[in-house]
Design goal:
The complex is a heterotrimer of chains A (100), B (711) and C (174). Chain A is mainly alpha-helical. Chain A contains three helices and no strands. Chain A has a single domain, classed as Orthogonal Bundle (Helix Hairpins), CATH 1.10.287.3510. The longest helix of chain A is centred in the last third of the chain and has 31 residues. Chain B is elongated. Among the domains of chain C are: 79 residues, Four Helix Bundle (Hemerythrin (Met), subunit A) (Up-down Bundle), CATH 1.20.120; 40 residues. Chain C has six helices and no strands. The chains are: A mainly alpha (100), B mainly alpha (711), C mainly alpha (174). Chains B and C meet through α27 of B and α4 of C.
């Protein structure tokens, strides 16, 4: 008998923590992980609602989100590896070639 | 133009050729004259003038055939504005044919004379190329004079009036870059200017009269004006008086009366044919013709008539006194012309129009004769001087001959100065007899032409205008005196200069026309003999001017005038003829008459008076206006300082400095600077740190959510 | 205070703690392991919410594949501890403020503005049966066939991309 509100609040908190992680940490891997956390929080909210409405659509949606997240992680990590090869550093602050 | 069936137009259709023949002559000479010889140019011009004469004869015949009725030939419309219509219409009546015959006849003779005269003159003055120009101008003059005398309206007359004034200017200033002795000078062109400007004052009077005519009488055409004038004389007589007096101003200018006569003596700067044609026989008579033509108007205003007569008589006497003291042969004749014109103007002023016209015609004959003979004398002296110089050079050797003509005149030699002449009776006999004929005619000795015409005037004056009669008689006395003086000085005694001693007679081309004129001077009296059945000119002109009774010969008047003339001759012989003058001797009259002779010698200082009172103040005034007012004030101060300075200040300081640089530029620069600063500030967002980009995304999300919240 | 609620609270607490641990940990490996813990708890939540398939998928894919991949890369790149950064000193406070604001906003939105919903009931046995799973499979392959296929292509692309990106250029300077 857990009210869905609690799940929502939890999702929001997790999302916020993930956002904080993206903004504050300088290690790109940790940033990426924070992004995964954010995705996870969203998934949680979707599943919570889906159970409320007794519909499977939410779960299917989450299923796709997980698949996409996996693909994204693969490519993203490949990129990070590539950047590390050229820059020899994983400090995001040093990747400022777009500085205007 | 409705002519009645009884009128036979005869040769009227030839009327335009009066003007067109001399115009054709001058055009051919201008365009093709370069290819003709001098003789060709001269004879062509003479033929053109001769054609005019032939047409005049034929027109006179036509008029005679029509019992003197007025004939008109309309050539073209000229001005048509509102109610004013002026046409180019030739008026052929007895008065105009008389003038035409006199002008073209004497004119043609003078053309022929001029062929010979100018041939020598251009060689003495060293400018052979100017020969053609002379004949072009002469033909132009004939054309203009024909327009003047054949016009049917005052406007057409005025066209001719101005035209002859122009030709007078062109011909007086023919040798525009020299003076009478051939030296480079402004003198001749100044003389031309003087003639033109003085004439202009006369023209001004004529124009005012014309304007009055148009305004109050509504037309310029002769018959219309005369008709309207009849009524106007009753309703507004002052208009008629004004018209006649302003016309008198024009006459004073053109016919050299006091006070506008001053141009005529200076006009002697022109070549002698010019003096003969224009300033003796034809142009100066235009004023007399004008008054005669306007006879109907003048008869309406006796007060104006009196003024005209007094002006004429006064001029006659005044000019005659000046002629006594002149030394230049042409100047004597010039003042004589002014004096005789005074006679004519007095005659027409008194209402003796026939007398005036009669004297006009006879005067044309003998004055032209006198002037042309004077030209012959001048040429004779030039020839003598020329041969002298050549002779001296032959003695000194060949070297100097190569220098050419200019070197001859080592001394200043005036061939017209009577003090250089003397004894020409022996060296130039033909000219002597011709000159005598003219002189006797001028003096009015029986039976020469001048006697009859002058007598008629004196007779008319004695009957109605005693003052005029007195003045004219005294003038006649002086006329005889100064002509006698001239004869003794020039032809008798010993030559006072080598040139006179070596003078040569002139060629036939010069002397033959003079003989024709001499014949006319002797026989010209037959035009209007004052005997029963003989008043030919009176009857002839009567067709136009109204029939007047021809006066018979009055022996008393004739006797007094002839007696005075003979007395004058005797006195002149006593002074000048008995003990003829020697070289360098002053004039015998100088001591006895003292300051009077000085006045006569110096033309009574009239020119100096005009200079001091009118011309010099005018010149000074215009210099002041030009220099101080126009240049220094208007140009330098107002334009440069005020206007340009203000403009410069305005554009440089006010607009450039303040408005443009400090105002607009500052604003524009500030705008640019602000944009730069803004972009510099904004650029800081692109710091290259991914984290800050992500922060901005989060910021955006927060804001949007906040907006949705608050909605 | 039902058992569900207690369970939920404990799990929630662990989840948030794990998240915070990931955030604040200096050691990257520790961060990854904390995240794994988080994922596991979230999987349990899925079970509680009656989504068994998703829970399994979560553990298999997320915690099993993705996090392992993460750990591989962490080991590859070196797990040095970065020195404290000198740039953007204002980033942390601003981010904290904004995140807090975001939290508040989202909670407000999702709770207050959303329609009031019923409570989440304990999932019946039927949920965890194969029938529900079969039904989900049917839905997946019928209604959501296109996204399914597209996702497969997406995975293919990701694979190829990852290989291409990390391939060394022939003769290229390193």
């Amino acid at each position: 008998m857990v009210p869905v509100n609690y799940y929502i609040v939890l999702s929001a908190i997790l999302f916020t923590i993930g956002a904080m992680g993206v903004l504050v940490r300088r290690n790109p891997l940790v940033i990426f992980m924070s992004v995964e956390l954010m995705l996870n929080a969203a998934n949680l909210a979707i599943v919570a609602f889906s159970s409320v409405y007794k519909s499977f659509s939410g779960q299917i949606f989450v299923f796709f989100v997980i698949a996409v997240a996996a693909a994204e992680v693969a490519v993203g990590l490949a990129l990070i590896v590539e950047i590390f090869r050229t820059k020899h550093s994983i400090n995001v602050d040093e990747m400022n070639s777009l500085k205007g | 133009m409705h002519l009645s069936e009884t009128v036979n137009t005869g040769f009227l259709f030839l009327a335009p050729w009066l003007v067109f023949s001399p115009v054709m002559g001058l055009l051919i000479n201008i365009i093709f004259g370069g290819r003709f010889s001098e003789k060709g140019i001269g004879w062509l011009a003479s033929a053109a003038s001769g054609a005019s004469f032939v047409v005049s004869v034929l027109l006179a015949v036509t008029v005679a055939g029509n019992h003197g009725e007025v004939l008109r030939w309309r050539l073209a419309e000229w001005i048509s504005i509102g109610s004013l219509t002026i046409d180019w219409t030739f008026r052929v009546d007895s008065l105009s044919t008389t003038m035409m015959l006199a002008v073209s006849g004497v004119g043609t003779l003078i053309h022929i004379y001029a062929i010979g005269y100018m041939h020598e003159d251009v060689r003495f003055k060293n400018d052979i190329g100017r020969f053609r120009r002379f004949f072009v101008f002469l033909n132009l003059f004939i054309a203009m004079m024909m327009i003047l005398v054949s016009g049917d309206s005052y406007m057409m007359l005025f066209v001719g009036w101005e035209g002859v004034g122009l030709c007078s200017f062109l011909l007086i200033g023919f040798w525009y870059d020299k003076d009478t002795l051939g030296r480079p000078s402004w003198a001749n062109s100044n003389a031309g200017n003087k003639a033109f400007i003085t004439n202009r004052i006369g023209d001004f009077g004529f124009l005012i009269a014309g304007f009055l005519m148009f305004w109050y009488l509504g037309s310029f055409q002769f018959d219309a004006v005369f008709e309207k004038a009849q009524e106007a004389a009753h309703t507004m007589p002052w208009v008629i008086v004004a018209i006649t007096l302003f016309m008198l101003v024009g006459v004073a200018g053109k016919s050299a009366q006091v006070p506008l006569y001053v141009w005529l003596p200076d006009a002697m700067a022109g070549p002698t044919p010019v003096s003969a044609l224009i300033h003796a026989a034809t142009m100066v008579t235009a004023g007399v013709y004008l008054v005669t033509r306007s006879a109907e108007i003048y008869m309406l205003v006796p007060q104006a008539q009196y003024i005209v007569a007094m002006v004429g008589a006064g001029t006659a006497l005044f000019a005659a006194t000046i002629a006594v003291g002149q030394y230049d042969i042409k100047k004597v004749l010039a003042y004589s012309t002014i004096s005789q014109l005074g006679f004519m103007v007095a005659a027409v002023g008194m209402g003796a129009f026939v007398g005036g016209m009669f004297h006009l015609v006879t005067h044309a004959f003998f004055k032209a004769l006198l002037f042309l003979s004077a030209g012959s004398i001048i040429l004779g002296l030039e020839r003598g001087h020329h041969h002298l110089a050549h002779g001296h050079h032959e003695e000194r050797g060949k070297k100097k001959e190569e220098r050419g003509h200019k070197e001859h005149h080592e001394e200043v030699f005036d061939p017209g100065d009577m003090r250089n002449m003397g004894g020409l009776r022996k060296t130039m006999p033909v000219t002597f007899w011709l000159y005598m004929t003219g002189t006797l005619a001028l003096m009015g000795i029986f039976p020469f032409a001048g006697f009859w015409s002058k007598d008629e005037i004196l007779l008319d004056a004695s009957l109605h205008y005693p003052t005029v009669y007195l003045l004219l008689t005294i003038a006649a006395f002086f006329t005889a005196f100064y002509m006698g003086r001239q004869i003794w000085m020039v032809f008798f005694g010993e030559a006072r200069h080598e040139a006179a001693a070596h003078a040569e007679e002139s060629k036939p081309i010069i002397t033959v026309p003079l003989m024709v004129l001499a014949a006319l001077s002797i026989l010209g009296g037959a035009l209007n003999l004052p005997f029963e059945g003989f008043h030919n000119l009176t009857h002839w002109l009567g067709h136009t001017l109204g029939e007047v009774e021809g006066l018979p010969l009055n022996l008393q008047v004739a006797g007094i005038s002839t007696g005075l003339a003979l007395l004058a001759i005797i006195i002149s012989w006593l002074i000048y003829g008995r003990n003829t003058l020697h070289a360098g001797q002053p004039d015998p009259l100088k001591k006895p008459l003292g300051f009077i002779f000085t006045g006569m010698e110096n033309k009574w200082f009239v020119d100096e008076g005009y200079w001091a009172v009118i011309i010099n103040p005018f010149v000074k005034g215009s210099q002041f206006l030009a220099d101080v007012i126009d240049w220094r004030f208007w140009h330098d101060f107002v334009h440069d300082k005020v206007i340009a300075g203000t403009y410069n200040w305005l554009s440089n300081i006010a607009l450039n400095d303040y408005a443009d640089q400090r105002g607009i530029d500052a604003f524009a620069n500030a705008l640019g600077k602000w944009t730069k600063d803004l972009s510099a500030a904004m650029r800081k967002v692109q710091n290259g740190f991914v984290r800050s980009y992500a922060l901005s995304v989060l910021l955006g999300v927060v804001l949007i959510l906040g907006y949705l919240l608050l909605k | 205070m039902t058992i569900d609620l207690i369970l939920f609270l404990i799990l929630a607490l662990i989840s948030v703690a794990a998240a915070l641990g990931m955030l604040l940990s200096r050691n990257t490996v520790y961060s990854a392991l904390f995240l794994v813990l988080n994922f596991v708890t979230v999987a349990v939540f899925y079970l509680l919410l009656g989504a068994p398939f998703i829970a399994m998928a979560q553990i298999t894919v997320y915690a099993g594949a993705i996090m392992v991949l993460f750990l591989f890369v962490i080991m590859l790149l070196g797990t040095e501890v970065l020195p404290p950064g000198k740039a953007l000193p204002w980033q942390k406070p601003v981010a904290g403020v904004l995140a807090a604001v975001l939290a508040i906003e989202s909670i407000y939105l999702l709770l207050v503005r959303a329609r009031s919903v019923a409570e989440v009931t304990t999932p019946d046995a039927a949920i965890n049966s194969m029938d529900s799973l079969r039904e989900m499979g049917m839905m997946l392959f019928n209604r959501y066939l296109l996204p399914f296929e597209v996702t497969s292509i997406l995975l293919l692309v990701a694979m190829v991309g990852a290989i291409v990106l990390t391939k060394k250029e022939k003769g290229a300077q390193k």
